Amino acid sequence: MDILSLLQYTFGKVVETFSHNWWLLLISILISAALKLYVDQDAIARFLRRNTKNSVLMSTGVAVATLRRGDRDLERADRRPLPA
Q1: Angle formed by the axes of helices 52-79 and 41-50, to 10°?
Q2: What is the chain's alpha carbon radius of gyration, rounded to the nearest angstrom?
Q3: Least buried of 37, 46, 68, 76, by fewest C-beta within 10 Å?
Q4: Beta-carbon neighbour count of residue 44 at 10 Å?
Q5: What is the DSSP letter of 80?
């Protein structure tokens, strides 16, 4: 496999990843913008300090949900042949 084919394959996989996870990225951007505009940074810090266990559980839950979907996508991608 030459370098150009590898770069094209890699770019395709990046685009495919974004096409599957665009909604998570959009939600993250909207939440981030809302927090920056409407919530005080000290209030967020206090909330995170008070709810350390809950914030870890929420982050883990989102990561697991994303990972499970990613695993299904990878299984489908593994069935496709690599470019020649």
Answers
A1: 90
A2: 18
A3: 37
A4: 12
A5: S
